[in-house]
Amino acid sequence: MELTAIVGVLSALFGMLFTYLAFLKNRDKDVQQSAAESAVISTKLDAISNGVENIRVDMRVEQKARMDLSERVTRVEESSKQAHKRIDELGEKLYEN
C-alpha cells in the first residue's frame, strides 16, 4: 500500500508540475499574441492619423482655392455691372440720335 501511495503522490506532483509548465507556456504565448495585436493596432492608428492629417491639408488647400475663386467671382460681377452700365449708356445715346 505504501507503493501505491507513493505512486499516487508522485503522479499528483508530476500532474501539478506539468500543469504549471503548460500555464507558463500559454501565458507567454498570450503575452506575445497581445504584443503583436497591440503593434498591429498601433500601426493602423498611425496610418489613420496620417490620413486625417492629409485630409486636413487637402481641406486647407481647397478652402484657399474657394476663397480665391470667391474673390475672382466678386471682381467679375463688379466688372459685369460696369459693363452693363456702359452698354446701357451707349444704348441710350444710340436711341437719342
Summarize the structure.
By secondary structure, this protein is mostly helical.
What does this entry look like structurally?
It is a single chain. The protein is 98% helix and 0% strand. The chain has one helix and no strands. The chain is rod-shaped.
Rg, rounded, reads 41 Å
Q: How widely separated are the two ends?
A: 141 Å
State the assembly state of the protein chains: single chain
How much of the residues is beta strand, in percent? under 5%
Count the strands? 0
Count up the helices. 1
Look at the structure and give the mean pLDDT.
90
The class by helix and strand makeup works out as mainly alpha
Shape: rod-shaped
Poorly predicted runs: none
Spell the H/E element sequence. Answer: H
Helicity, in percent?
A: over 70%
- What's the story with the biggest beta sheet? none
Transmembrane segments: 6-24
Keywords: Membrane, Transmembrane, Transmembrane helix
List the defining traits of the structure above:
97 residues, mainly alpha, 1 helix, rod-shaped
Which SSEs are present, and which pair or pack?
Elements: H1 2-96
Keywords: Membrane, Transmembrane, Transmembrane helix
Transmembrane segments: 6-24
